[in-house]
Structure formats: structure tokens, C-alpha cells
Write a structure and sequence with these properties.
Blueprint lengths: L7 H15 L12 H11 L4 H14 L3 H6 L2 H7 L6 H19 L7 H5 L6 H12 L9 H9 L8 H8 L8 H14 L26 E2 L4 E2 L1
Antiparallel strand pairs: 1-2
Helix pairs in contact: 2-3, 2-8, 5-6, 9-11
Bound molecules: iron/sulfur cluster.
Length: 227
């Protein structure tokens, strides 16, 4: 059918309820054992799969322990250590610079405010939100990655195009208590069923509420293009 509910709030509530049923245990899929490792893993994950990041950090976290270790690393050596990751040169630079700031301005501890985190090199609002949520138990917003971006648009929850605008648009319609899980549920559904190129609408638990369902609609609202 593919008919969304009348309001975005009702649509968000219905979508969440069904996805909670479908993915009851979903959570962050990056591996880390402390806040610094979390920050580094999230920085590495930009434009890269969590699976690849986990492979790289298995060795990286054994070699480097503290912010001092990263800040003192040679650029070439750190870049080499992460060279199977997208944009490894830039990411190595950002990590060294962010860790130098963490030592100089934050006594070696990963800061716990949005503004202090986004002041670190290579840390945008999305990375900061993940670190706040999973490192400090502070939920200030909704993490909008590529899956959240695509599915929110497909499901008629937003017409905004860019992550920060989407986040602003979603915050009033998604209950605050669900902000953290919203991201993980959408990532799980994006990976399992509603992928970018060929979503499996036949198998989707949201099909009857999705205004992009291929069974009933011609246009993918994520891109605005015809299926
Ligand atoms: S899989 Fe199809 S029906 Fe389900 S959310 Fe994605 S586009 Fe909509």
C-alpha cells in the first residue's frame, strides 16, 4: 500500500514501534573499550564501513593507548597504520591534531560537550553526537549517517537533504527518549532491507507505511529519482 500516517510524528512513532520489534538488540557496531578509542573509531568511520574500521582498530588499539601516543606518532607511520581506510592521510592528521588538543586543553580526557568536541580537528556534529551518546551517556541530538539520511527521506519523515538539517527537522518529531535508538534502528534496517540501490520492499515491515515503496510508488523519495 505504501501510505504514510497523517503526521510526521505519528509516522515516526509507527516506524519506531515496528523497527524496535524487528531489531530489539541493535546498537553501535564499532568496537572500542574506552572513550578515546570510541572517538578514534568514529573519526575513522567517516565514509568507511564499520566492518573495515573494526579490522583496522583491532591492531591500532593494541599499538596506541593514550592521546599522547597518537599525538606523538609520526604522520607517515600513523597513516600507514590506517592505510586501508578511506582518506587515511587526512584522518591520521585529524587524529594527531585532535589528540594534541585533548592533551593540551582537556587534561588528556575526551571532552563531554558538543562545542568542545566539535572544536577538535576532524570532529563534526555527527561524530560528537556518537561520542556523547556512547562515551558519556549524553543524548543531545540524533546521529544522521547515510542510512538515517536515506531512510528518513524514503519514509516521508523529512524532506531535508543534508545531515544537520535532517537532524534539526527530526528532533521535534522523534521522542527524545528514542533519539539514540532511532539511529541504530535505521542503520540496521538500511543494512538488512532498505539498502541504497535495491531495497527489498517485498520483505519490508514498513512497506504499507512507506511512500517510497517500490510496490506502490514510482519515485524513491531519498533521491527524488524514479525507481
Ligand atoms: S525497503 Fe522499500 S518499503 Fe521498506 S522502507 Fe525501504 S523503500 Fe520503503
Amino acid at each position: 500500500m505504501g501510505t504514510p500516517l497523517d503526521t510526521r510524528t505519528a509516522q515516526a512513532e509507527e516506524v519506531l514501534e515496528r523497527l524496535y520489534e524487528e531489531y530489539p538488540d541493535t546498537t553501535i557496531s564499532l568496537n572500542y573499550s574506552n572513550r578515546l578509542e570510541l572517538l578514534i573509531a568514529v573519526m575513522l568511520s567517516a565514509q568507511c564501513t564499520d566492518e573495515r574500521v573494526n579490522k583496522v582498530t583491532a591492531d591500532l588499539f593494541a599499538k596506541y593507548d593514550t592521546a599522547e601516543d597518537y599525538a606523538a606518532a609520526e604522520q607517515d607511520e600513523l597513516a600507514e597504520d590506517i592505510n586501508s581506510i578511506t582518506y587515511f592521510n587526512n584522518k591520521a592528521k585529524y587524529i594527531r591534531s585532535a589528540c594534541a588538543d585533548i592533551i593540551e586543553k582537556h587534561d588528556g580526557e575526551v571532552p563531554d560537550t558538543m562545542s568542545e568536541l566539535t572544536d577538535l580537528a576532524g570532529v563534526g556534529r555527527k561524530t560528537a553526537n556518537v561520542v556523547l551518546q556512547h562515551g558519556h551517556d549524553i543524548v543531545e541530538g540524533i546521529v544522521v549517517d547515510t542510512h538515517v539520511q536515506r531512510l528518513s527521506r524514503r519514509l516521508g519523515l523529512t524532506e531535508e537533504e543534508y545531515p544537520e538539517k535532517i537532524e534539526e527537522d527530526l528532533m521535534p518529531v522523534v521522542p527524545e527518549t528514542d533519539w539514540q535508538q532511532f539511529t541504530h534502528l535505521f542503520i540496521s534496517h538500511g543494512r538488512a532491507v532498505c539498502d541504497a540501490r535495491n531495497p527489498d520492499c517485498d520483505a519490508c515491515v514498513l512497506e504499507d507505511r512507506c511512500p517510497s515503496s517500490k510496490l506502490d510508488h514510482d519515485v524513491d523519495l531519498a533521491s527524488g529519482d524514479e525507481w
